[in-house]
Structures are given as C-alpha cells and as structure tokens.
Amino acid sequence: MPSNRQMEALVWLGPRSMEMQAASTPELAPGEVLLEVGVAGICGSELSGYLGENSLRKPPLIMGHEAAGRIIQIEGNCTLADGSQPQQGMRVTFNPLMVCGQCDRCRAGYTNLCRTRNLIGVHRPGAFARFVPVPAVQCWSLPADLSLETGALTEPLACAVRAVSLSQVRPGNSLFILGMGAIGLLCLAVARALGVEQIYVSDMAPSRLAVAKSWGAQEAIDASKQDVLAAIQELSPGGVDAVIDAVGTTTTRRQALLSAVPGSRAVFIGLHSAESALDLSYLVRQEVTITGSYSYTHTDFAHALDLLKQGLLHSSSDWVEERPLSDGASAFAELVAGTAQATKIMLRPE
C-alpha cells in the first residue's frame, strides 16, 4: 500500500492543455488491484482526445490505457484474467476494455462491442500516473523474460490482431496497409507472423517506411511523393487481396477502397476523420466489403500476449521512445505536430 496518499499524474485539462498535478492515490473497490505503473504508451486515439476531437474523453482526465506495472495492493479475493492469483510485486499488463459479459453482443462473442463497455483512461482514471486501479480480472501476468515495455504493447497489438483477422488475409495473398504508425506497424508484424509475405505499405514519413521495410514489408510507398493508387496497380495489377487503413482520412479510405481487388475486403481501423465521401457505386459494382475494426475481444488480447511471449517483437528501439511522465505534455505536442522522431512514445512515472 502506498505510504504517500498523494501521487503525481499527467492530467488532460482541455484541447492542447495537459500538465502534471498532484492527485490522490486511488482507493480500490473489491476485486481490484493497485498497479504501480512501470510504463504507459501514448495511443493515437489519445492524440485526438488531447486535441478535443474525441467525444468520449471529458476533461479533466488522466488518460493512459496501454500500460504495464507491478501489483502493490490487492482488495479482496480475486483472480487474474489468465487464472493466476494476484501477488504483491507481480508484473502484469491489463486489458483496459471493461465489458459486462451479459449483453447480446458479449454473449455472441463480440465483447469489444459490449453495450455498456467502459475503458480505463477514458471513463475512469488511467495509467498516466504513478498508480492506477484495475479490476484483477482485467490483468494478465507477464513472464520474467518479457519487459514491462513490451508487455505494455499487448493492448495496441491486440487491436492489430483483430484488424488482420477481419481482413481475412492468408499466406499467398497480397495485403496493403496504409499508415505506418504503431497500429499499422503492428498489423504488418501480425500478418508476417501468419505467413503473409506480399505486403505493401504506405506512409508520408520516410523514417516509418524504413522501419516497415526492416520488419518485412515487400514494398514501401512514400505517399508524400508517389501516386499511391498508381504505385499499387504497378505492384499488384488489378488490386490487392486485402487492405487495412490504419490512418482514417478521406484520402486513405478512398485509396483503400480503390486498391482492393473486386470481391475482397477493406478494413478501416483508423479514426482520423469522422466522415468521408467515398465512391459507393464503385463499392457496389466491385463487391468490395468495407468493415470497421474496433478494439479487440478477450481472445484477441490473449493471442496478442501469446505472440509477444513467442518473441514477435524482438526490439522496440527502432520505433519506440521512452520519456519521463513529466515530459508527457511536450510528448503529446510533438506527436500532434509530427515532430517526434519515434513512432510511439512511452511515458515512465518517476
């Protein structure tokens, strides 16, 4: 139990306004554990929240839902998601998506679409703080050979697992991924793990494209200099078998639709623009299926953690930067401005 009932937290106060503040150490409800946060990643959805463009996030708010840490307090008898018993000092990551398990969507297996879903860091205080309370049933223990930094990537990797699954891509198929931010890169890693080799990617940042090439992308298209649709037609005449748009602008959604081979599928996981005008007559004539991909199910999360245990991500040094939590406001500002060198920034409480 923390001896000091006050803690430092990075608090979002409104559009482009974020600062370190003293906050009370959270009290635990029955069945919860208190985690001392080791590291917490900044998610793209939090950038839109930071700008005031995400209706779910209301200031003042402690964000942070991609995290890992150590259990320092346990309230009541409880069990972790993997069936283990929580112990003091145990290293864990957590699934921040809390669901009821009883509604029609949960019973049908679509727990990510739970009618009453809540997200840690959105509907309750998150991990951009020294401590965060989490229901024990949301926590997964980490093996000794898996770092907290890698464990914190389970959540975004689970998003990628679901997107790749929905794309229905298989070995021997071609796949085009638009956007080499964290989710796009992780989709690339998941597809490669499935045995998909013919993978094309696009982005406007040469540094991100370089990382994608080192991760096994067959071809990288610089969207700032090249005609993306012309490049895809040259690489895969007639279109690709599956497309994942990990950006979510009108431009990338249009490119995704027009890159797909007739009768195939385009997965939209990016959320940059709320609305986009698309050629739906083309969609009808070519029988292209567009599907959204939101978050992940319990099974997706478990699969993501298994992939990390198997060594899916051998190193994060080429795309992840770690900073102290006190630098969080500047990290958000740099990511929004596009001046950050790293694809993802993780914050570590001091």
From TrEMBL:
A GO molecular-function descriptor: oxidoreductase activity
Top-rank lineage group of the source organism: Bacteria
SUPFAM superfamilies in the cross-refs: GroES-like (SSF50129), NAD(P)-binding Rossmann-fold domains (SSF51735)
UniProt KW Oxidoreductase keyword: yes
Domain Alcohol dehydrogenase-like C-terminal span(s) in chain numbering: 182-309
Domain Alcohol dehydrogenase-like N-terminal: 30-143
Gene3D superfamilies, per database record: Medium-chain alcohol dehydrogenases, catalytic domain (3.90.180.10), NAD(P)-binding Rossmann-like Domain (3.40.50.720)
Keywords tagged on the record: Oxidoreductase
Protein name listed in UniProt: Galactitol-1-phosphate 5-dehydrogenase
Originating species: Reticulibacter mediterranei
